[in-house]
Amino acid sequence: QKEVEQNSGPLSVPEGAIASLNCTYSDRGSQSFFWYRQYSGKSPELIMSIYSNGDKEDGRFTAQLNKASQYVSLLIRDSQPSDSATYLCAVPQTGANNLFFGTGTRLTVIP
Amino acid sequence: KAGVTQTPRYLIKTRGQQVTLSCSPISGHRSVSWYQQTPGQGLQFLFEYFSETQRNKGNFPGRFSGRQFSNSRSEMNVSTLELGDSALYLCASTPRGGAETQYFGPGTRLLVL
């Protein structure tokens, strides 16, 4: 089982809709979780981090964490065409200093 | 504060050659990690350096190596290049490493012919 799994998509939503991106992880000891956004031809950039069960909101983005289910999600409200990108979920390797990344979900927001 | 820089941005090599990529972290950041990104495998961790010491290594063959200098700049080297080494190589820096935000450089795109 891979450390981090994501639905690779692609996911298409109309402008103004809610985009829902999901990620599961295998290490129950994971304490922190990150969502990165990567535009085509660019490097990943952090958009959200979450450490506690529940929701964390930042503008139009909400990260949701359920440690019991080993599940983390990212909701993008009022999706904009500029949100079209690949979204990567990442968790740190326990006891080490690197991140495990999912393969990413490609999101397209249709105007 | 300047971001992470990587040189060169693009490289074309042939099988069997070797290549050296360079990464300069954000000023004050002491940890540098390297990742390989391919369409099929996604982002995969290569190794991490902190204060000139390799602290962690991913599951890559010994042809992949790296080092870090006293000013925290890092280089990675790939010897005896194979076609499958064609990828985007990204480095990321953090102040201390660990479960912290990783700031990525623009990457070096390597094409092996």
Overview of the structural elements:
The complex is a heterodimer of chains A (111) and B (113). Helix content of chain A is 0%, strand content 54%. Chain A has strands spanning 4-6, 11-14, 19-25, 33-38, 45-50, 54-58, 61-66, 71-76, 85-92, 99-101, 105-110. The radius of gyration of chain A is 13 Å and the shape is globular. Chain B has 113 residues and is an all-beta fold. Chain B has no helices and eleven strands. Chain B has strands at residues 5-7, 10-13, 19-24, 31-38, 42-50, 53-57, 64-68, 74-78, 87-94, 103-104, 108-112. In chain B, the strands form two sheets. In chain B, strands 2, 4, 5, 6, 9, 10 and 11 form a seven-stranded mixed beta sheet that branches. Chain A binds chain B through residues 31-32, 34, 42-46, 49, 88, 92-93, 96-104, and chain B through 31, 33, 35, 41-45, 48, 50, 55-56, 58, 90, 97-99, 101-107.
